[in-house]
Amino acid sequence: MSENEAKHGRRGFIRIAGTAALRLALAGLPCVLRAAAPGKLRIGVIGSGRVGGTIGELWVKAGHEVMFSSLDIEHDRKLAAGIGSGARAGTPKEAAAFGEVLFFAVPYAALPGLGRDLAAEIKGKIVLDASNPIPGRDGDMAKAALASGTGVVSPQFLPGARIVRAYNEVGYARMRDDAHRAGERLGIPLAADDAQALKTAVRLVRDAGHEPVVVGGLARAREFDYGTPVFGRPLTAAELRNALGLKP
Ligand SMILES: NC(=O)c1ccc[n+]([C@@H]2O[C@H](COP(=O)([O-])OP(=O)(O)OC[C@H]3O[C@@H](n4cnc5c(N)ncnc54)[C@H](OP(=O)(O)O)[C@@H]3O)[C@@H](O)[C@H]2O)c1
Q1: Is 231 in the pocket of ligand 1 (CB under 6 A)?
Q2: pLDDT by residue (tens digit) across 21-50?
Q3: Is the shortest distance between the CB of 135 and ligand 1 below 6 Å?
């Protein structure tokens, strides 16, 4: 074993031992203090606006560690401080490096540049992509993306990422206000080609308090793109399945 490996091994042991001690200490406290710690994920949010801020906060509340990033680090520091333990702020590069899972919630026109700037960090990572092409905001590139379908175009902008289209079709206020609601939950359509990435997205949608609806491979993401009949409609999972012609 090299010195470096030994050092990392020791650090790893100290970290694990520290975590175990913390868990033991927390075990004696009322469970309302902390939600699901086991299996928590490190998530990097790229674009901590309405959607990124909302979903990132729901994931922190579910026990995950989230780094928020945007073009305005001061905004992200305040956001993270307001959310509290489990939330932190960084640059997009830092957030992309921090997260084992990444959540992109930026104007679609920002995706190509981010894909180039963060190429090394996003390679091989699970990326939940909420970004929508809106022609009135993103211009001609949005029209082209809608013509091909976002499930085909986003992977071209974020090469090497294991993309799941997620949190695209419903407004952020419903995502926030209907999280963990009683009765049938808000349905969130998902499309992915990577089975493991899809599994992680399913879990994260449930952790945020919504109900995942797996539509199919990335090519089928166009069925809930901007301009489709389901876009902008807060539907239950059953209603979404029905509207998209999926098996109940
Ligand atoms: N609003 C909704 O209800 C909704 C629902 C589903 C999907 N979407 C889609 O999700 C995406 C985000 O929507 P939103 O409503 O959350 O927008 P928003 O509130 O304007 O937030 C966008 C975020 O992206 C950041 N950003 C922009 N360019 C960036 C870049 N080059 N690098 C890093 N961060 C960048 C912004 O940072 P600064 O503030 O510092 O510029 C901001 O934090 C859009 O594509 C939208 O169409 C929106």
Answers
A1: no
A2: 333 333 333 333 334 456 899 999 999 999
A3: no
